[in-house]
Every structure is written in C-alpha cells, then in structure tokens.
Amino acid sequence: MPEIILPEVELNIYSPKNPTEATIVENYVCSAESSPNIVRHITFDISGTELEGKVRVGQSIGILAPGENEKGKPHKLRLYSVSSPSKGEGGKQNLVSTTVKRAIDEVDGVLYTGICSNYLANLKPGDKVKVTGPSGKRYLLPENAGDFNYVFFATGTGIAPFRGMIIELFEAGLQGNVALVFGCPYRTDLLYPKYFKEMAENHDNFDYITCVSREERRTNGSKKYVQSAIEDHKDVLGPILEKENTLIYLCGMKGMETGIYHNLALQGYTDYLVLSGSLPETDPNDWNWEDMKKGIKPSVRTFEEVY
Ligand code: NAP
C-alpha cells in the first residue's frame, strides 16, 4: 500500500466576518428536467480574490445568504462541497462550482423552503454572492493520486466532490480503477448522468453503478441503496476493493456510512474500517446498528463526509 500523501491546503482565507464576493457565471439544472427535485450546478467567478487557485476538490466553500433569521440575526453560513476539479471549472482557476438542491419541504401542512439553497437557486449570471472558505483539510485526493484505485459512494448531492475528483483523476491520466456508486430516489434524480455514462463508455477503468431506491428492488425485495451494490455488484466492485491500493470515499446523507461499513465487513473488506468494542470478535452477520455506530470508524483508506 503506497503512503497516502495528502496535500497542504489553505483554510478559511475568508471567514463569515470577512467574506469575499464572487460572481455567478452559470446556474443550470443538473437533475432531469422532469424531476420535481431541482438540483443545480452553480459556477462562481472568484477572479481577483485570494481564493483563486486555492480551492481544492473535496473542500467546501461557505455562502452567506442575505437577510436575517426570525431572531433578527444574519443567516448562518451554509457550506457547499465544491464540484469542480482543483484546476477550476473547465480548467479555469477563477471558476469554482458547486451542486445545490433547492430544499422544499412540507411539515404538518406548513411549507418550508431552505434559506440558502433557494437563494442560490434563484441567482442569475452576473449576480454577486458573499463567499467564505475554503474549508476541509482531510477529505481530499492524495497528492500521489495516481498510485491508487478509488470507489466513490454518493447519495444525492453528495455526488458534488466526486464529479470534480473524477474529472481531475482522468485528466491526469489515471491508470488505476475508479467506480462511482450513486444512489437517488428516482431515475429523474440521477445527477450529471450523461457525463458519467459517457465516462463509463469511454474508459475501461471507470464503472458507474446507480441505485435508484424507489424504483428498483434487489432480488430479496429490499430497496437498492449504495451499500447494497457492494454485494449486488461484487463482480465489478470486488476486484477493486480487494486491491491493497484502493481508497474509498463516501459523501451524502448521514446514516449511509453505517450501511456501507456493515456491507464491507459482511464481504470481508475490513481493511477499510477500524473496529472496536465487541465487533472485532463478532461475526458481522450478528452486529447490531447501535454497536456499529459506536464501534466502526473509517481507516486511513476511507474518507467520509456525511451530513
Ligand atoms: P436524495 O436525492 O434524496 O438521495 C438520497 C438517496 O439515499 C435516496 O435514494 C435515499 O433513499 C437513499 N438513502 C436514504 N437513507 C439511506 C441510508 N441509510 N443509506 C444509504 N442510502 C440511503 O439526496 P439529497 O436530498 O440530495 O440529500 C443528500 C444529502 O447529502 C443531504 O443530507 C446533504 O446534506 C448531504 N451532502 C453532504 C455533503 C458533504 O458532507 N460534503 C455534500 C453534499 C450533500 P430513500 O429516500 O428512497 O430511502
């Protein structure tokens, strides 16, 4: 296993008290047009700011929505994972992108709309936005990225960092294997599907597996979730996960990590995990959810960002 050398990154060049200003250059829907769930790919021009050339894929930027909350205080900072490669969107260092779902929900008959996601979704090219960051110092591709294979697990907008990472790895001519396992509720919620399908068609070392939870069922009748792909697509994922120089990355909904870790253990891939408590001595078939939540941590080969 080669040493994993993480790059040095700049952190919080701009803070909520000292934000900078970026300009929207594009804002388009990257889920299917027919989907009621609207996810947008938004690109910011950071020209002339200290962020230029310093935002790496895997990091997040902060956005400050204008206005105040019900207590009369300014809205809190919201973090968004960068979905452009470290070289910038389209190779332009002044352009940074993110992937944002317009948050709309109804609870007890009352409509709730996410403050910052709706603010961002409504912006047009030319509009100015207050930006902070970058943040995040471990959830990164290694500096020696070409020494590894990768399995990326994403749910929903958790795809953001993997879009940028996959662009970056293949532009650098990666010879190893990459598999992207993406989970979403309906087929219309697949994000950037054209790009990933074409990548899979054009690269023998790239696999794209989708798990459409509310439309597809496993043979045992349960929902298809990203973690079920570890067993159901063992023909593709097994040979990659078995290699000693494979790293795994998880991004998306909190809770997905426990299912993924359990399924890795069930298939014998415990190198990706650090087990404690009663787990090391117990058959993974007998593990319970509470013990797993407490007793499984990611190993050095596993990068997790869920919230
Ligand atoms: P979404 O489109 O609703 O898709 C989520 C998918 O995950 C659905 O298919 C859902 O299935 C499935 N799912 C639910 N529980 C799961 C579990 N325990 N294990 C595996 N899969 C599970 O997603 P979204 O609305 O975009 O939400 C994405 C989430 O990612 C948000 O919570 C966001 O905060 C987070 N996120 C985190 C980061 C980060 O940490 N850097 C970046 C971006 C997004 P069912 O609904 O059918 O059960």
Structural account:
The relative contact order is 0.14. A six-stranded antiparallel beta sheet has the order 4-3-8-1-2-5, covered by helices on one side. A five-stranded parallel beta sheet has the order 11-10-9-12-15, with helices on both faces. It has 307 residues and is of the alpha/beta class. It has seven helices and 15 strands. The mean pLDDT is 97. Residues 81, 101, 155-158, 160, 183-185, 189, 213-214, 223, 225-227, 251-253, 255-256, 259, 305-307 line the site of NADP nicotinamide-adenine-dinucleotide phosphate.
Quick description:
By secondary structure, the chain is α/β, with parallel strands linked by helices. It has helices at residues 115-121, 160-171, 193-202, 229-232, 234-241, 256-266, 289-295, and strands spanning 20-29, 39-45, 60-64, 78-81, 95-101, 104-107, 110-113, 128-135, 149-155, 178-184, 206-212, 246-252, 273-275, 296-298, 302-306. The site of NADP nicotinamide-adenine-dinucleotide phosphate has 26 residues, from strand 10, strand 12, helix 6 and strand 15.
